[in-house]
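User: Run a structure prediction on this.
Assistant: Running it now.
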Amino acid sequence: MDSSELYHVKQQFFLGAYKTLIGLTLPPQSSLDYVSTLVYQARAHLALNNPSAALSLLPTDSEDVTVKAVSSLARYIAATTPLSSESPEEAEAALEELRDLSVEIEGDDLETSERDKWLVRVLAGTAFVRAGEVEEALETLGLNGGNQESVEAVALIVHIFLSINRPDLANKEYEKSKKWAEDDLLLQLIESTINLVTGKEGYSDCNSFYTEQLANPSLSSTKLLTARGVTRLLRGEVAEAKSDLEEAISQGGADDETVAAYAVATTLRPSEKGEGDQWWSKLTQEFPNHPLVKDVSEKADLFDEAAAKFHVPSLPIVAV
């Protein structure tokens, strides 16, 4: 059972309140929550795409397997960030470290908790997904019933299935987890994410969940604002969606997902001439690898290809 302080830390992380989490004071090193809080703060830095800040926070001489795992994940992200000065060999070395840790935690001589072992698997699985090694990630995360002690592992498996357009498998994994997991916050978030992708019941359940969490005065999450903004867009509530996304951006949440959603919202309901074009240009320039940018670019190429094959016949000349 987590302490109330660690529960709060996890709540901040799961709901995307990364900046708030980073700003929390670490407990004393003698505290049982010290290492866990340290790891979640480092993961918050990684979620904000700041691996150098995560590495500066983590001790380099720690023997704790979770600290080692998050350090390796940070080095992998640092080596694969666009314009990184790191070499491909350093990225592969970080992946090998995580593979070695995944094997090490299976040994009988390692004195660590099952919870920490599962956290190592989640961190390793995260790196494998980012590297495109989906099958390795799923195997590491204990697909097919092996993950019955980690809702975080289930959450990552669900994310993987949704990312490859298999919401049926994502929902199957979620339903299985309900048989053994407590009805906690992360489980509710998993359900809301699946409902957001599938549009179940007109997005009402996920919209209600995001609204409920945003009403928490101790929580400030641009991720939740973006999620509700996207939900409202899908429900046709464009003005309300734009308001959520504007608030997320004003709070410093101009990440790729928020900018993409706002580009769509301003196209559907611009407040000034050219606003939609302005935000679409920002998205394509700052986040050229975003799936929406790639999809539109591919469709534009297909259109140009088809147009090039279309022959416009010359107009007949009518004699006077």
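The first helix runs from residue 4 to 14.
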